[in-house]
Design brief:
This protein is α/β, with parallel strands linked by helices. About 35% of the residues lie in helices and about 20% in strands. It is built from ten helices and 14 strands. Strands 1, 4, 5, 6, 9, 10, 11, 12, 13 and 14 form a ten-stranded mixed β-sheet that branches. It has a four-stranded mixed β-sheet with strand order 3-2-7-8. It is globular, with a radius of gyration of 18 Å. One of its GO terms (molecular function) is ATP binding. Keywords: ATP-binding, Kinase, Nucleotide-binding, Transferase.
Length: about 300
């Protein structure tokens, strides 16, 4: 693979989706397997849009780890920086399509997920400093040693190029809100772009009000804040102004992965030097397409599909 344009850092897993919708897990009889994990899905979404993408993460020495590497390469994403934690298992995540718009997730990441064991020796330091776009996540600092490693990556990069923080808050990964806010807030001082929904903004900056959250995010010195408001669209905020991009109505099959499709399109837009509103419109459309499908990585749209919807 040629030199990367984007490197995402963080969560990976194998998603198991029920083939029966609207019923609890106890009544599901069959599941479909898919590549998953926020950072991984964003890399796949960016690759679907023609970007040279890679992911820095870790898996276990098991068949699911092999599946992750093969699936990444199949999607055109470099697996060069996928390490192995010899004593841990590749995470598995069960999804319950009940309700489909906001499915509950059951994470098997104990005692700790391999992607949270990314250590100093796992990091390609020159790449994380020089890649045009580095994508990090809130989940990535929920435990050590990944927390310190991700902090070191950001400090080493010193806000060069596009440095994007996906607020990516999952309460089950944190001991309490106070700890999550402190760690995510630190990262906001070291990135150029922040992306998150209302709940994630409340965790990061203490308010779920989109405009107030945008003010607080920009107060950390970032150049672009994208606050996802669900059915009310997306608030786009820069130091120069702010705009609301309307949503794309679709029939929701599964809400999972829509945010990662959004993220992959943000990557594409930033690397294409688009204006912020165009980025948000494109990303909104990508998210809507994935919400109308089952699965995450496998559901990521290409440019033609997004442009058709727009």
């Amino acid at each position: 693979m040629t030199s990367l344009e984007v490197l995402t850092v963080g969560r990976v897993g194998v998603d198991l989706y029920p083939e029966q919708s609207g019923v609890p897990l106890a009544q599901v009889s069959t599941f479909a397997k898919s590549l998953g994990g926020t950072a991984t899905n964003v890399a796949v979404a960016a690759a679907r849009l023609g970007r040279r993408a890679g992911v820095l993460t870790k898996v276990g020495p098991d068949g699911f780890g092999t599946y992750v590497r093969e699936a990444l390469e199949g999607f055109g994403v470099s697996s060069k920086y996928v390490g192995t934690s010899p004593d841990l298992l590749t995470p598995v995540v069960f999804c319950e399509l009940n309700p489909p718009a906001d499915p509950p997730l059951l994470f098997y990441r104990l005692p700790v997920a391999p992607d949270l064991t990314i250590g100093e020796d796992d990091v390609p330091w020159s790449l994380t400093r020089e890649v045009p776009l580095l994508w990090v996540t809130g989940t990535g600092v929920s435990a050590e040693p990944a927390r310190t490693s991700q902090r070191m990556m950001l400090a080493n990069r010193a806000r060069s190029g596009h440095t994007v923080l996906d607020l990516d808050y999952r309460p089950m990964f944190w001991p309490d809100v106070k700890t999550a806010r402190a760690e995510i807030s630190w990262m906001l001082d070291h990135v150029t772009v922040a992306v998150g929904n209302r709940t994630e903004c409340e965790i990061a900056v203490g308010t779920s009000d989109p405009d107030e959250a945008a003010d607080r995010l920009l107060g950390h010195g970032i150049s672009l804040a994208l606050v996802k408001k669900g059915a009310e669209g997306v608030l786009v905020a820069t130091p120069e102004g702010r705009w609301t991009v309307e949503p794309n109505p679709v029939e929701v099959v599964c809400g999972l992965g829509a945010g990662d499709a959004f993220g992959g399109s943000v990557v594409h837009g930033l690397l294409s030097c688009w204006d912020p509103v165009k980025i948000a419109r494109y990303a909104n459309a990508a998210g809507a397409i994935v919400a109308s499908r089952l699965a995450c990585a496998d559901a990521m749209p290409d440019q033609e599909e997004i442009e058709d919807l727009l």
